[in-house]
Known about the structure:
Blueprint: E1 9-13, H1 18-29, E2 34-38, H2 50-54, E3 58-61, H3 68-77, E4 82-85, H4 93-96, H5 98-117, E5 123-127, H6 152-171, E6 174-180, E7 183-184, H7 197-206, E8 212-214, E9 220-221, E10 224-225, H8 226-239, E11 245-248, E12 254-255, H9 256-266, E13 274-276, H10 291-296, H11 304-323
Parallel strand pairs: 1-2, 1-4, 2-3, 4-5, 5-6, 6-11, 7-10, 8-13
Antiparallel strand pairs: 9-12
Helix pairs in contact: 1-8, 3-5, 5-6, 7-9, 7-11
Amino acid sequence: MRENLKGKTVLVTGGAGFIGSHLTDKLIAEGVEHVVVIDNMFIGNVVNLSDAIATGKVTLYRDDAEISSSVDAIFDEHDIDVVFNCATKALNYSFHNPANAFDTNVRVVLNLLEHQRHGHFKSLCHFSTSEVYGSAVYEPMDEDHPRNPTTTYAAGKAAADMAVESYVRMFDLDAFIVRPFNNYGPRQNYEGMLAGVIPITAVRVLTGKTPEIHGSGEQSRDFIHVSDTVDAVLRLFEVQPAGETVNISTDNQISVNELIPLICKHFNYDGEIIRKEARGSDVLCHNASNEKVKALIDYQLTPFEQGLASTLDWYKDRIGEDLK
Length: 324
Ligand SMILES: NC(=O)c1ccc[n+]([C@@H]2O[C@H](COP(=O)([O-])OP(=O)(O)OC[C@H]3O[C@@H](n4cnc5c(N)ncnc54)[C@H](O)[C@@H]3O)[C@@H](O)[C@H]2O)c1
């Protein structure tokens, strides 16, 4: 349905982050001519793009996609065909600065949609998040599940999705939404309050700190390996209709009570696990429906224990480097 990406010039917002950098690698491997990245390095890291930059096919702007003139400058400079919008500030940031967490998610996509409306690029793939659903009203959560955000991060993401949907209706744009569930894999941020549960626990154990479980530990997540997400996104690019949303997830639920011991076991840690208070607004369950993605593409998933083991080994190597 959509032309394949070979030979195209692609803009990736947030491309020095976790998913964006894997997406950039994959785009280059698939034969894209040039990838332009805009990332303000809020959490992004140029190291994530080392391999991609070494190909000579990446132009990196350390700039802020919330600022419309920064985005304008990129469209003035480059003849962009397709945009993948991955820029965001991590969910936990919304507990520190609720307004800006919301604003980032909304402003970036509006800046892009305005350029698309004026014909400056053809197709937009916008990254949503399972967080827009809030806690499950029914399971598994399909794409029609009510949006009921519990954080300003998720509210901003839901608003951004609605912006994409309404621009498509109003201006007949070629824009579609992919909605990943929890991703894991190499390069996921492991520092500070913005890190996710797998990196935090891995790094605590690797640096001699005691791992923690917040709340009852019964909260469950549907973890998907980042390589499976970017693979699915590029396959969806060719077939997903404009204006539609597709969940990207696995059929596996794992609770924090099951996950933390798996990480401990990988590192041969058999010490204490501390119980802490539940984090405010933590959704209890994210059990996704994959029916739509499976109907659209050949959907291949990495077995969780295999993906977790290689991810934990990556953290071990990285922490080793950082401690040198
Ligand atoms: N990681 C997950 O589990 C997950 C799950 C569901 C959805 N998503 C979505 O996937 C996308 C990518 O997430 P990620 O996990 O790679 O996050 P990430 O934080 O690793 O990457 C986001 C990148 O955006 C950059 N950024 C932040 N504000 C910016 C701004 N104003 N201008 C330019 N760059 C800016 C950050 O520096 C970072 O490099 C996001 O839209 C996120 O909502 C991620």
